[in-house]
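Input structure tokens:
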């Protein structure tokens, strides 16, 4: 019998997105094919259903899973793929800090940061897809805690919590020449000031880093 973790996936259209980095003052443009992205971050109940583990510091079925590293996130993607009878996308490297991406696999994966920003913007051009208090849990309204997913207004494509609540791991290396294995985080979290909760903000951390405002959202290639 097929099993499902109940993750709702949203079809994201093809498009072009221009990314920027404040530190280096660089800008670059990426053309994207259609793909699918989860409507909300992975919840604690979904993570536990698939892995048997609940690493989060807070407790709640609909709370986003947090205290997960990038390595934990790619392992979850593989475990979710197997759970639903799909081909795992990633092969972890020998050091445990990297992975190879099988582009022919039909399973779940992390979004690239270009995919993440394109989906977050949902056709808008400003720093956010709506008034911050209406779309995000952040320092100004979160009362120093994480909140259930899906409680704020979604963007035009039906994606909730793209800003605030928990930062989300992306596939990409941040700047390998300077930061080595560090991976990209996007979106801002419940403890962040308003200026961190913008579509363009990039954060970085080591792939084994865990903290209580970092989670994940899964993607799939739309042709798979």
């Amino acid at each position: 019998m097929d099993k499902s973790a109940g993750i709702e996936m949203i079809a994201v259209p093809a498009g072009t997105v221009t990314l920027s980095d404040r530190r280096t003052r660089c800008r670059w443009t990426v053309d994207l094919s259609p793909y699918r992205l989860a409507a909300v971050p992975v919840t604690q109940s979904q993570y536990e259903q698939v892995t048997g583990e609940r690493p989060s510091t807070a407790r709640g079925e609909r709370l986003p899973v947090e205290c997960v590293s990038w390595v934990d996130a790619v392992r979850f993607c593989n475990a979710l793929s197997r759970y639903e009878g799909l081909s795992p996308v990633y092969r972890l490297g020998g050091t445990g800090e990297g992975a190879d991406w099988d582009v022919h696999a039909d399973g779940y994966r992390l979004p690239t940061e270009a995919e993440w920003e394109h989906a977050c913007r949902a056709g808008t051009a400003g720093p956010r897809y709506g008034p911050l208090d209406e779309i995000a849990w952040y320092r100004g309204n979160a009362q120093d805690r994480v909140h259930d997913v899906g409680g704020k207004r979604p963007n035009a494509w039906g994606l909730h919590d793209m800003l605030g609540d928990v930062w989300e791991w992306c596939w990409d290396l941040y700047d390998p020449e300077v930061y080595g294995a560090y991976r990209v985080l996007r979106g801002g979290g419940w403890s962040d000031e308003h200026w961190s909760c913008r579509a363009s903000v990039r954060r970085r951390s080591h792939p084994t880093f865990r903290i209580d405002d970092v989670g994940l959202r899964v993607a799939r290639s739309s042709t798979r």
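The radius of gyration is 16 Å. The CA atoms of residues 21 and 27 lie 7 Å apart.
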